[in-house]
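Here is the promised in-class demo. Please do not try to memorize the tokens; focus on the logic of going from shape to residues.
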């Protein structure tokens, strides 16, 4: 029972950290007007999963 409570508490802390990182990233994106192209991110992640060398996507302006 104690392990289940510890697991739930750890999961809640991880979620909280994830949301804090996401909020900070969104605020930075809005402040700079730059972000990552979704297709480039998907290609990068697929290459990483396949254990292939791949360059990290670069930020690009998303404001016209």
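The designed amino acids, position by position:
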């Amino acid at each position: 029972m104690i392990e289940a409570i510890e697991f739930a508490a750890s999961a809640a802390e991880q979620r909280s950290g994830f949301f804090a990182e996401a909020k900070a990233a969104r605020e930075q994106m809005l402040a700079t007007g730059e972000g990552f192209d979704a297709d480039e991110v998907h290609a990068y992640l697929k290459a990483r999963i396949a254990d292939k060398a791949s360059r990290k996507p670069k930020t690009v302006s998303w404001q016209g």
